[in-house]
Amino acid sequence: MALFGRVTFFKSAAVPEDLPPSAGEIAFAGRSNSGKSSAINALIGRRVAFVSKTPGRTQLINFFALDGERFLVDLPGYGYARVPAATRAPWEKTLGGYLQTRSALRGLVLVMDVRHPLTELDRRMICWFRVTGKPVHALLTKADKLSRAGALKVLRDVRRELASVAPGSSAQLFSSLKKSGIDEAEAVLGGWLGVERREPVHAVRTGKSLTAG
Ligand code: GDP
């Protein structure tokens, strides 16, 4: 089973008072339409996060429980022009506060479309977060949309830039469509939360090969 195969929806938080007690959590942030919900669903192996029809509308922090006390946290997508500034400002305060003061937060997964990495808003997110000294892992989604060579070039460039603005960060290619990059993401996220896959990746053998010889 996937590392996060047992994760289920837990609750939505609209204000800081709604945040549940937590022993450890990982937040997912990204521009609207970056592929964040699809990536969370791919990691969990089921549709638990809502793939957006109207990007940027949900201004809730959604908690998905790994067990009673550890969570994957889906932050609202940012950068959708039609959200009015009056709604955006208080929300940014809540979000910035969450990123900077949530002690249970182990690291930030920054989801970016591999074709449009490190936009101004992504950089702002990194700025909010790097003061904590906690790690950022960039998930470059929709890698299937570029050639392998093109995607690897973006990966190299993103790694280089992250190394200068957020030391200790990491990056990888990911495709929810092709289900690629899941093992790599599980290794990073599992490490942050202190959980491991229960069974070895290559445990499944055919009866024939087990009895042969
Ligand atoms: P969110 O707004 O960041 O949560 O993004 P969604 O997960 O809702 O995805 C936005 C759009 O990108 C949807 O049409 C998805 O089907 C598409 N999408 C998401 N991930 C991938 C991917 O890995 N490959 C491709 N080709 N399309 C994707």
Task: Provide key terms for this protein.
213 residues, alpha/beta, Rossmann fold, 7-stranded mixed sheet, 7 strands, disordered C terminus, binds guanosine-5'-diphosphate
Taken together, the total number of domains comes to 1
Q: Quickly name the level 1 CATH class.
A: Alpha Beta
pLDDT averaged residue by residue:
86
* CATH-level-2 architecture: 3-Layer(aba) Sandwich
Which strand order does the major sheet show? 1-3-4-2-5-6-7
Short description:
The chain has 213 residues and is α/β, with parallel strands linked by helices. Helix content is 34%, strand content 20%.
How would you characterize this protein structure?
There is one protein chain. The protein is α/β, with parallel strands linked by helices and 213 residues long. The protein has one domain (8-193): P-loop containing nucleotide triphosphate hydrolases (Rossmann fold, 3-Layer(aba) Sandwich), CATH 3.40.50.300. The chain has six helices and seven strands. The chain has helices at residues 36-44, 85-101, 120-130, 148-165, 182-193, 207-211, and strands spanning 8-13, 24-30, 61-65, 70-74, 105-113, 136-141, 170-173. The chain has a seven-stranded mixed beta sheet, with helices on both faces. Helix 4 links the parallel strand 6 (136-141) and strand 7. The longest helix is centred in the C-terminal third of the chain and has 18 residues, at 148-165. Bound molecules: guanosine-5'-diphosphate. Guanosine-5'-diphosphate is lined by residues 30, 32-38, 51-52, 55, 77, 141-142, 144-145, 175-177.
